[in-house]
């Protein structure tokens, strides 16, 4: 996993709960309290997931709550600052979500060792999209949080339904 994910997680925790909670989570995950992650740094998945679990423990929240908070923070606050170009040309949640696989294809080419999830799309009708999640990480709950974040960013009330460990149904308003 890339360090940018943990940068975002750290910003989220520090901004909403305080630096002490972030440092406690780092320590609980077996890291130095002053650990810093570089955006393109490779972080072992088990280390990243261990830190996410430690954040949940420290904040006394579930993984689903953490995933929703991360998704909203990533899409609405963090990513627009550093990935602004990917938002260009998108006027709706639908536009943005349909662009995600292409964005991940581009990032895979431009960032060494990047292994973001890939997506396949299947329309059930003009308002119902099934997104298939293709990743060895099994982080579909994070994907759901990110999709909800896209809805908030575009001020659209999306219905997001987990269909299993590899698919999500998105119903657009």
In the predicted model, the low-confidence regions spanning at least 5 consecutive residues are none
Query: Could you give the count of β-strands?
Result: 4
Work out the helix count.
7
Helix content: 55-70%
Question: What gyration radius follows from the Cα positions, in whole Å?
Answer: 16 Å
Write the layout of secondary structure elements.
Blueprint: H1 3-17, H2 19-28, H3 45-59, H4 63-82, H5 84-87, H6 93-110, E1 118-125, E2 128-134, H7 140-153, E3 159-162, E4 167-171
Task: Explain the overall architecture.
It is a single chain. The chain contains 7 helices and 4 strands. It is an alpha+beta fold and 173 residues long. It has 2 domains: 3-61; 92-171, H-NOX domain (Alpha-Beta Complex), CATH 3.90.1520.10. Helix 1 (3-17) packs across helix 2, helix 1 packs across helix 4 and helix 2 packs across helix 3. It is globular and about 50 Å long.
Question: How is this structure best summarized?
Answer:
With 173 residues, this protein is of the alpha+beta class. It has seven helices and four strands.
List keywords for this structure.
single chain, 173 residues, alpha+beta, H-NOX domain, 4-stranded antiparallel beta sheet, 14% strand, globular
